[in-house]
Amino acid sequence: MAMSFDSYMKDMVKPMREDLTRLGITELLTPEQVEEAIEKSKDGTMLLVVNSVCGCAAGQCRPGVAKALQNETVPTYTYTVFAGQEKDATAKAREFLAPYPPSSPSIALFKNGELAHFIQRHQIEDRSADMIAGDLIGAFEQYCK
């Protein structure tokens, strides 16, 4: 029995999605959902995780986000897009990450609809989850109070 590529990918990335959604992070699946989230964040703070299938997403990014969200001070809203999966939603999210080039995984913190803090892939791949969590907690303390 042959399995379609789309079905295979959905099955393969399901646990990668769940690493974030089980934390209460909402997936943004369309460009319209991204725009709505950005609009909503104009009245608070928003964490946006650009998820990925790569090893640094699994070993450092997602665990770092999970640890950071245990902090007392956290963003008002938490969202994720999945690079390589919901391509249109990811492309729309990246419009709000300028002037930074596309980077996945990556982690953005917005305050009142404006990008306040950004962690690019190159700042994830050679750092531990604890270091990433520390970076995020520092940003939470600075921008989310």
Automatic annotation (TrEMBL):
Q: Name one Pfam family in it.
A: Disulph_isomer
Q: InterPro entries, alphabetically?
A: BrxB/BrxA
The family classification in the record reads:
Belongs to the bacilliredoxin family.
Read off the PANTHER family from this record.
BACILLIREDOXIN BRXA (PTHR40052:SF2), UPF0403 PROTEIN YQIW-RELATED (PTHR40052)
What name does this protein carry?
BrxA/BrxB family bacilliredoxin
Organism name: Paenibacillus oryzisoli
